[in-house]
Amino acid sequence: MGLNISNETDNLVSVILGIADEMGKKPDIDECIDPKTKYHIINNTYPKEEDCKKEIEKFNEILFKNGVEVLRPNSIPGLDQIFTRDIAFVVENKIFIPEIIESRNREKDGIKYFLDNLDGNEKVIIPKEIKIEGGDIIIHNEFIFIGYSVNTSFKVSRTSLESIEFIQKYFPDKKVMGFELHKNDNDPYESILHLDCAMQPVGKKHIIIHEEGFKNHSDLDTLKKIFGENNMIKIDRTEMFEGYSNIFSINSEMVVSDSTFMRLNKKLKEINIKVEEVYYREISKFGGLFRCSTLPINRI
To answer: If we measure between CA atoms, which residue out of 260, 146, 246 comes closest to residue 199?
Structure first.
């Protein structure tokens, strides 16, 4: 199979797609690790397992239809295993395995069969003191973008400042850039859980971006220089909350997007990107969508 990820939009060959089997009971409010899940518990709109399974299988059908090899985690009863993006991530020909937030760390056991079949030089075990989750890592050819938080007291602070130097060590020829994100454990309209909740490269040169999610204006200036302001598809706080930046590219000319993202889908079609639409509203209630549900293994 081989590991090979150089960006977010090359032709997808293989991916590990999350599952919604045997998710377990609804958490108590004080057990919530993100504000969007908490929001839906408070509003009595917490998703049902059967609905989540149907949505993720529709996503699977789209991937299969487009010739993608899809692997799945082994189910661990009582554990939410939808968001495979965070439990490991591939950059170039290496897979990085982090020590993620304690309540989720067992999710890695679901892909142990895959990790065990890799050579030792393909795997990097990230030290416990370096906090990284895959949703905060966005690869764009010679660039690696990392979303981080200095204030580690938030439950939604999943990636630390130290991660930038750690990743740079493995890729000295790449430009590793850290972007500090706004964090809030209680308000999902004001909190950026991961970098892919605030930005996403799409096509050959465009980027979906929620500018208010970044703490430093200089970071936005950097992204404007890289992508060009005219190539930025800007989304507001409500669209960020809904998950507009968390679509997923099958290749540079095709994305999977939520069928309710009418403004975004129209814009993508205007720039000649085919949009495969899937209703993903129940999955979104956990704070992630298509990108969060996927761990790409190989793109060419």
So the answer is: 246
Domain ranges of the chain: 12-299
Give Cα separations from 9 to 4, 12, 66, 245, 264 (angstroms): 12, 8, 14, 14, 17
Rounded (10°) CA dihedral 144, 147, 150, 156: -150
Tokens of 256: 């999977």
Helices (H) and strands (E) in the chain, counts: 8, 15
d(CA 221, CA 124): 32
Mean pLDDT on 263-283? 98
Q: Would you give the distance in Å from CA 56 to the centre of its chain?
A: 15
Strand pairing of 274-278 and 94-97? Answer: unpaired
What's the pLDDT tens digit per position in 90-129?
999 999 999 999 989 999 999 999 999 999 999 999 999 9
List, for residues 53-91, the tens digit of each pLDDT value: 999 999 999 999 999 999 999 999 999 999 999 999 999
CA distance 191 to 203: 26
Q: What percent of the chain has pLDDT over 90?
A: 97
Q: Which residues contact 260 (CB under 8 A, 6 or more apart)?
A: 242, 279, 281
- Give the DSSP H/E element, type plus range, for residue 72: none
DSSP classification of residue 9: S
Cα–Cα distance, 9 to 26 (Å, whole number): 35
Q: Which helix (H) or strand (E) holds 258?
A: strand 254-258
Task: State if pTM tops 0.70.
Answer: yes
The pLDDT tens digits of the residues spanning 161-183 come to 999 999 999 999 999 999 999 99
- Write the CATH number of the domain with boundaries 12-299: 3.75.10.10
Question: What torsion do the CA atoms of 159, 38, 237, 275 make, to the nearest 10 degrees?
Answer: 80
Tell me how far the alpha carbon of residue 12 is from its chain's centroid: 15
